[in-house]
Known about the structure:
Blueprint: E1 7-8, E2 11-12, H1 18-24, E3 29-32, H2 46-55, H3 62-75, H4 81-85, H5 94-106, E4 112-116, H6 124-141, E5 144-148, H7 152-158, E6 161-166, E7 169-175, H8 185-192
Parallel strand pairs: 3-4, 4-5
Antiparallel strand pairs: 1-2, 6-7
Helix pairs in contact: 2-3, 2-5, 3-5, 5-6
Amino acid sequence: MTADRLRFEGQDLLSISEREMRKVRGARISMVMQDPKFSLNPVLTVGEQIGEALAVHERLPRKQIRQRVLDMLEAVQIRDPERVFDLYPHEVSGGMGQRVMIAMMLIPAPSILIADEPTSALDVSVQGEVLKIIDELITQNGMGLIFISHDLHLVSAFCDRILVMYRGEVVEECLASELDKATHPYTRGLLASVPRLDETREELPVLDRSQWETA
């Protein structure tokens, strides 16, 4: 996919300098990655990492940064934030690590949060909790959300509009409320490949890409 312009809040991101782009990353657009193990610095404490995300974009006294970090840890429903503040990434669970990532990305109060398969590395028992936290914080702060996932039903539960991409190109676009009306073979294949509790199938269907791919 190519674009001549990529506008965000009236600014063309393709034409600005790297220095100007650093003011956008994190402060105005943040991203929660798939697995916190590969996104958190193992030699910095939880508090240091979240505080760094704030200090880079705002000049605040150390005491004020610490309080903002503690408030953010509480906002992502981490019990005993004072204790977690001093822990290292390897000392927290996967679910807590992802909450730390969410706190780190949201503490600068960005306009848009990009969530790239934010629960794929988590146990099913905590996936719902993490997604609920993301949804609540986005609603409270009036942020936009770009949710990237192969689970289209999950996307439809959190987003208003769905873009289905294949090989870097948009092959279908629809309202989340009209996902069941999608017609592209790739979209239908993604929907059909998700097992449901109310059905019994000997095997899940395999996507036949020859239906829509061209040489």
